[in-house]
Amino acid sequence: ARSSDINEKFNYKAFRSNPKKFGDSLIRVSSVRVNQLVSVPLWGKDHTFCIASDMDGENKFFISMFGKTEPLSEGAVISFTALPMAFFTYESTTGKKVEAVACAGVSIEPENIAVQNLLWDFYAEF
Asked: pTM for the complete prediction?
């Protein structure tokens, strides 16, 4: 994708209100934290699933992407490019309802931020 085709000013609340307005362009989201990340074989290829949230843990993204990312761990700070598909609710491992933007991922890259220096609530719901 050309950088001119990417919306770098994605607004989470605007998407939540009207997802149809955003469904035809890629978005670029920076400085979000990995909550969960897993790569699994699917249809004979690697497939990555990533749940990430902004730094205050409020706005969550569920990214589904063909291929593997470079090794990332929970707590890593990333940027990603994706096509936002829908706003949905899923059930966390503790049974809590969690809202997120479902995205078809294009790329996930680590940001060079010393994650050990950032405050993080490890008990947050994902």
From this structure: 0.82
